[in-house]
């Protein structure tokens, strides 16, 4: 089990490194074009935490925990990463899925009321996520000779964000799978609710 965790983390960190490098270089070009008097807030003010938690009990049991740690690279661009764990059980199968994901968000509209004065103070964001999961061969692909195998999924879409306080928000996302792994892990669209603070 340890070698598969090492492979997952190695691939996951490579993807995060590539994604982060692209965002940092893009941000540096924007920063260099700004007035030198503009100051970037301290790191602790740009960090955010959050994620999602799903719970379903009954004939179908589904428990999902996805914590996140993120950074506002620019006022409208955020990156985040974290682990992902899911336990699923129905009358025929029982399985666990685990791995990690990283995403980048771009906020084109911070407050929709500024564009359309209808009294709604919600933001709109674009979301691109890369997820790497370890699946059990016995459940997902019995032809696979190992106990587990990796599936990489790229998800993209949009969402709305409702501020709950100075730093906290409730997010509703609609995501579509952009790559075909051959395994039906998600519906299209995948609807998610997450929190950040």
Describe this structure in words.
With about 200 residues, the chain is α+β, with helices and mostly antiparallel strands. It has a single domain (about 1-195), classed as Beta Barrel (Porin), CATH 2.40.160.20. The protein is about 20% helix and about 50% strand. The protein has helices spanning about 1-35, 45, 110-115, 135-140, and strands at about 45-55, 60-75, 75-90, 95-110, 120-135, 150-165, 170-175, 190-195. The protein has an eight-stranded antiparallel beta barrel. The longest helix is centred in the N-terminal third of the chain and has 32 residues, at about 1-35.
At a glance:
With 197 residues, this protein is of the alpha+beta class. The chain is 22% helix and 51% strand.
> Roughly what fraction of the amino acids lie in strands?
over 45%
CATH architecture: Beta Barrel
Mean pLDDT: 84
pLDDT under 50 segments (min length 5)? 27-37
- What is the count of distinct domains? 1
CATH topology grouping: Porin
Write out the strand line-up for the largest beta sheet, numbering strands in chain order. Answer: 1-2-3-4-5-6-7-8
CATH class: Mainly Beta
End-to-end separation:
34 Å
Which value, in Å, is the CA radius of gyration? 19 Å
**Protein structure class:** alpha+beta
Quickly count the helices: 4
Characterize the biggest β-sheet. 8 strands, antiparallel, barrel
The coarse overall form would be elongated
């Amino acid at each position: 089990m340890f070698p598969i965790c090492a492979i997952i983390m190695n691939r996951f960190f490579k993807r995060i490194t590539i994604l982060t490098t692209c965002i940092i270089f893009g941000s540096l070009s924007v920063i260099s074009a700004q007035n030198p008097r503009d100051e970037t807030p301290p790191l602790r003010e740009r960090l955010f935490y959050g994620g999602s938690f799903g719970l379903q009990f009954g004939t179908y049991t589904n428990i999902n925990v996805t914590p996140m740690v993120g950074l506002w690279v620019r006022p409208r661009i955020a990156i985040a990463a974290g682990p992902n764990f899911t336990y699923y059980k129905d009358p025929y199968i029982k399985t666990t899925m685990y791995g990690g994901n990283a995403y980048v968000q771009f906020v084109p509209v911070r407050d929709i009321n500024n564009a359309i004065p209808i009294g709604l103070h919600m933001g709109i964001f674009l979301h691109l996520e890369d997820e790497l999961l370890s699946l059990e061969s016995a459940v997902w692909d019995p032809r696979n000779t190992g106990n587990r195998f990796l599936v990489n999924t790229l998800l993209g879409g949009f969402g709305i964000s409702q501020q709950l306080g100075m730093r906290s928000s409730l997010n509703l996302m609609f995501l579509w799978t952009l790559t075909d792994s051959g395994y039906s892990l998600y519906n299209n669209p995948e609807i998610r609710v997450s929190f950040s603070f």
